[in-house]
């Protein structure tokens, strides 16, 4: 390990120690949500304004005498330090320099939420993200200097219950976010231009939408679109001891590539998700997806199977959760048949973190975990990832569905399956409703497949971030 890596590791540990040295006051629930349009600051409406904190006074500003028309404001500032040694296993384009000293991500988001009586709501949010300190492999998610991130109108005729429709630019996070997610980890979150309708009851929810992703650009108000669309029907059903989700997703794209062959893709996904209620000590989340359709002249037949399990042991304020995750995403079986078997992860969150450019296509992953929560607002997670190719006739893809291995001239040359092993440590700390801190470190040992298809150097990844939300 180089001297610089040791220095950056010490920096990270000092940051973690300093942030954990504050008073612990809040569990993981609170009025501020990850989807800011569902923040719950109802308590400020009837409170004496002299007893409210400065930011709470922004959460309810009446625009009518009866208070039925009101507006609230909020925002976020997030600063993140990242360090890579051997990013992408040392295989970088000529215009990208190695990350020798780390780099900074900077995010500012601001929103306004207008309520027009019981039925109508208007929500708008701006986003500004900057990256300092290196040239980036993925500038579209690293930097977006200013953009209209969300702008939608919601109508719910039955006083906030039952049927609703929501039209405009908006984020999605459906199910366990392994199909469609807003991707909180990267600097710039994912958003869509969409029309959404739904029905929400106490134990049953049904959603349907048609959407196209917004393609983030580096400049000011210059985001674009590509010819890519997704539509869905998603049903959530709460049973006596578990929850059942059934869903259908349709996808159309004109610029997708598999084994570097580009074409028009029309893909349908049928899925089922079974998971238990969070208060149970034994936790599980089982997902099965089958995909069919057409990619140019090829018929699509692909699938994904995932089981996330764990058991919660509690002793006073402390919690221990050993767990195991198994994931299988199919890869193409043969370049000479009339089928495409590569699983399309659509708009999933990064399944294996941000350290390595690997997404959930053509992969078998075994992930043991151990979580320790010394207090309700501190979480420490140790994880191991053991990754293999599902098919030797297919490569590996990033979470953004871009193939990185093998290079075009190396197609179908390697019979190795092992992608590698990754060891990770994550530390989460919620100081209060506004301040949160996160640090993680990982080391990825490349397997024979990565070594055969590139430089195959081990990846060291360090990250620390602080976020203030109001």
Automatic annotation (TrEMBL):
InterPro entries: Alginate_export_dom (IPR025388). Residues 71-454 form the Alginate export domain. It comes from Marivirga sericea. This is Alginate export.
């Amino acid at each position: 390990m180089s001297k610089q890596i040791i220095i950056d590791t010490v920096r990270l540990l000092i940051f973690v120690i300093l942030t954990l040295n504050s008073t612990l006051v809040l569990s993981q629930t609170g009025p501020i949500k990850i989807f800011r349009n569902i923040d719950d600051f109802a308590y400020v409406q009837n409170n004496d304004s002299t007893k409210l904190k400065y930011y709470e006074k922004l959460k309810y500003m009446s625009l009518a005498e009866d208070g039925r028309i009101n507006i609230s404001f909020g925002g976020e500032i997030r600063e993140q330090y990242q360090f890579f040694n051997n990013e992408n296993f040392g295989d970088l384009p000529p215009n990208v320099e190695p990350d020798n000293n780390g780099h900074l991500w900077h995010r500012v988001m601001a929103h306004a939420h207008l309520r027009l009586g019981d039925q109508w709501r208007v929500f708008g949010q701006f986003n500004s993200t900057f990256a300092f300190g290196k040239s980036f492999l993925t500038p579209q998610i690293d930097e977006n200097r200013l953009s209209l991130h969300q702008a939608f109108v919601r109508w719910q005729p039955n006083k906030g219950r039952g049927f609703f429709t929501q039209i405009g630019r908006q984020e999605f996070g459906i199910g366990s976010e392994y199909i469609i997610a807003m991707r909180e980890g990267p600097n710039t979150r994912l958003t869509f231009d969409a029309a959404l309708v739904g029905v929400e009851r106490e134990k049953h929810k049904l959603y349907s939408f048609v959407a196209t992703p917004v393609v983030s650009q580096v400049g000011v108000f210059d985001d674009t679109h590509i010819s890519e669309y997704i539509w869905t029907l998603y049903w959530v059903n709460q049973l006596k001891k578990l929850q059942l989700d059934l869903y259908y997703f349709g996808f159309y794209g004109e610029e997708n590539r598999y084994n570097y062959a580009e074409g028009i893709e029309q893909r349908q996904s049928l899925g089922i998700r079974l998971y238990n209620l969070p208060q149970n000590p034994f936790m599980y989340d089982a997902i099965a997806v089958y995909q069919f359709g057409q990619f140019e002249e090829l018929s699509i037949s692909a699938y994904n199977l995932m089981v996330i399990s764990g058991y919660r042991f509690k002793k006073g304020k402390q919690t221990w959760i050993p767990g195991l995750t198994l994931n299988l995403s199919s890869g193409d079986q043969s370049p000479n048949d009339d089928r495409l078997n590569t699983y399309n992860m659509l708009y999933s969150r990064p399944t294996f973190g941000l350290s390595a450019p690997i997404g959930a296509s053509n992969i078998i992953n075994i992930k043991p975990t151990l979580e320790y929560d010394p207090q309700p607002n501190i979480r420490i997670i140790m994880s191991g990832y053991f990754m293999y190719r599902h098919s030797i006739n297919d490569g590996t893809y990033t979470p953004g569905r871009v193939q990185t291995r093998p290079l075009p001239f190396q197609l179908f040359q390697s019979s190795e399956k092992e992608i590698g092993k990754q060891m990770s440590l994550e530390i989460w700390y919620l100081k209060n409703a506004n301040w949160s801190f996160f640090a993680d470190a990982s080391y990825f040992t490349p397997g024979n497949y990565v070594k055969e298809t590139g430089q195959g150097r081990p990846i060291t990844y360090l990250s620390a971030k602080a976020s203030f939300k109001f």
